[in-house]
Amino acid sequence: MSSNRKATIIAGTLYFIVIIAGILSIAPAIDDSDYLLKAAANPHQVLLAALFQFIMTIANLGFAITLYPILKIFNEGLAIGFLSFRIIASVFNSIGCIILLLLLALSREFVCAEVPDSSIYQTLGNVLRAGRDFVNHIAMVFTLSVGGLMFYYLLYQTKLIPRWLSVWCLIGTLFTISSSLLIMFHAIDIITTIYIALNLPLVLLELVLAVWFIAKGFDSNVINLIAEKNENK
User: Fold this and answer.
1) CA separation, residue 151 to residues 22, 81, 203, 221 (Å)
2) Residue 67 and which of 94, 157, 166, 214 are 20 to 30 A apart at CA?
3) What distance lies between CA 77 and its chain's CA centroid?
4) CB distance 81 to 150 below 8 Å
5) Which helix (H) or strand (E) holds 62?
């Protein structure tokens, strides 16, 4: 098995980890309207959500690092851009993990304080939750999407995967960017029918792409052609 084939199998596996960890990083206690009480009552749920969000961060970054040596052969500029935006997105994702832990700490303080006036805790909690939403659903999505557009355009340009799949990638990413813009301008809320509908194409795409990388990988004919050109230089 060639090193390129091994790289795409690893990348596909990491993509599955990203999807699974992303689902497991949801913390219902934090999203509950009574989160100041619910988070402290369900600390393991919040801690596990933070852990899985961190795992998702590492897997996302690992995906880009694994494919970078192959991609730079075809277009070094786009490859560097893709990797750079994945690194930035990983930073935002790490901030999201920290905010989760801060919300848990605030909830514990609120429960221990037992004060009738909860306005300070409520204000701090609302700010932290708004910051988490901004980081997870706007800042991180934008950076991932910009890097994704570079990645998918490179795949379309080189035909490393079928072009119909690359086009799906590009369109799905644009839908996801649209959903984040709508959230940013308060046109829709998070986890609504419109939000899910706009993100569903990209979610399905990531599943298909993960399977494709593991089962088929990049087109070996395209890679061999580039390798021959480089040898003849």
Assistant:
1) 21, 8, 16, 19
2) 94
3) 22
4) yes
5) helix 43-74
Can you give the pLDDT at residue 190?
85
Residue indicated by tokens 């999201």: 96
Sole residue written with tokens 């993990």: 97
Question: Residue 160 has what DSSP assignment?
Answer: S
pTM: 0.91
**DSSP type of residue 139:** I
Write phi, then psi, for 165 (nearest 5 degrees): -75, -40
Give buried/exposed letters for 58-90 (b at 16+ CB in 10 A, else e): bbbbbbbbbbbebbbebbeebbebbbebbebbb
pLDDT tens digits, 34-88: 999 999 999 999 999 999 999 999 999 999 999 999 999 999 999 999 999 999 9
* pLDDT of amino acid 1: 61
pLDDT in tens, 187-227: 998 878 999 999 999 889 889 999 999 999 998 888 877 76
d(CA 102, CA 90): 19
For the chain, domain boundaries: 3-232
Does position 233 have pLDDT exceeding 60, yes or no? no
Number of residues assigned to the chain: 233
Task: Please give the Cα distance from 30 to 78 (Å, whole number).
Answer: 37
Quickly tell me which residue has 């970078």 as its tokens: 68
Q: In Å, how far are 31, 56, 106, 158, 228 from 35, measured between CA atoms? A: 7, 24, 10, 48, 60
Helices 193-215, 3-24: axis angle to 10 degrees equals 150
The residues near 216 (Cβ < 8 Å, ≥ 6 apart) are none
